[in-house]
Amino acid sequence: MMVAQGGFDKKEEVENPSEVLLNPSDPEATFRYKAGGRHPGYVGNVVEAVGEKSSLVIVYDYQQNTYADNQFMKDYLNEKKDFSDGSFIVADGAYSGEENSRLASEHNLKLVTTNFTGRKPDEIYADFVFTDDGKYLIKCKNNRVPEDCIYDPGNERSVAYFRISDCEGCPYKERCQSRFLKTRVRKEVSWKSVGRAKQLQYMQTEEFSEYAKFRNGVEAIPSLLRRRYHVDKIPVHGKKRTRLFFGFKIAALDFQKLLDYKKALYFPKSWSIESRRPARSPISFVAERNRL
Predict the structure, then answer these.
(1) How far is residue 131 from each of residues 135, 200, 256, measured CA to CA in Å?
(2) One-character DSSP codes across 113-173
(3) How far apart are CA 227 and CA 259, in angstroms?
(4) 218 Cβ partners below 8 Å, 6+ apart?
(5) Are 275 and 56 a contacting pair, CB within 8 Å?
(6) What's the whole-model pTM score?
(7) How confident is the model at residue 281, as a pLDDT?
(8) How much is the pLDDT for 204?
(9) What burial letters (b/e) apply to 69-82, b meaning 16+ CB within 10 Å?
(10) 14 pLDDT exceeds 50?
């Protein structure tokens, strides 16, 4: 009997990239980890316009499921023209971002995201003032103006230098966590942090609470597509063919909405449960992504 000397080395597990081949019959399919689970295939993004008595899916997009949520929002906003006054769009927190908010405002649209993702910044940053391009800090929470300010493009941060006398007696010194040097005080902060802090403040207002009531409507579309139209069970492979089937299911959903609306006009008491949603002012909002 021969005995090998030495121990065994444990082989480290290597995670396969999202673009790895999942099925030879569908080489375009990808997978993504979300909420502790693995989701293979593709992803659909749906935009629904809602009026006082009815709603209708007006736009849908369909991509590999490695496509980012906020990129769906960018694509939609870049393709749309200006909206009417008072229009707003309600979406999941994954659709948020300073660039998306800016794009929405350029189209006369208010972007409201109903939950907050990522690390929460201190709310004092909401009162920091930046230049219009978001690169240079002009004024801090304590209304102090920096002596010097440079932009770090690698980290997308503004690096500002204040006088020590401006920061020593500041009531927000502990929360600001600036760095005291020998002759001045260094503070790094990004425009994104300021935007996220403003979002946190806005989420505490009564106006936001009213917008957040549309969250149930956002959830309804993916639920209907799964339960009634079996969007997770498309009997073909490939992005183009599955996208076509996804479009058929969206058309079926809209057709049912039209029938319910017509039924409500002539037979109000027999309006289906699917259509019995509270009266709402005209809006557009993005439904959550539907994993296929």
Answers:
(1) 6, 21, 49
(2) ESS--SPPPPGGGGG-EE-TTS-SEEE-TT-PPPSEEEEETTTTEEEEEEEHHHHHT-TTH
(3) 19
(4) 90, 91, 92, 114, 285, 286, 287, 288
(5) no
(6) 0.64
(7) 35
(8) 83
(9) bbebbeebbeebee
(10) no
DSSP assignments along 57-104, one per residue: EEEEEEEETTS-HHHHHHHHHHH--PPPTT-EEEE-GGG--HHHHHHH
Per the model's pLDDT, the better-predicted residue between 118 and 283 turns out to be 118
In angstroms, the Cα distances linking 270 to 37, 218, 239, 253, 265 are 40, 24, 39, 19, 10
C-beta separation of 59 from 73 below 8 A: no
Tokens of 37: 């689970």
**Quick check: 42 and 61 in contact, CB under 8 A?**
no
* More confidently predicted of 218 and 102: 102
Residue 145: count other Cβ atoms within 10 Å of its Cβ: 14
The kind and range of the H/E element at 254 are helix 239-266
Q: Average pLDDT, stretch 47-64?
A: 85
**pLDDT (tens digit, 9 = 90+) per residue, 146-171?**
999 999 988 889 999 999 999 998 99
In DSSP notation, 49-67 reads EE-SS-EEEEEEEEEETTS
pLDDT at 272: 45
Strand, coil or helix: 36: coil
Q: What is the pLDDT of residue 148?
A: 93
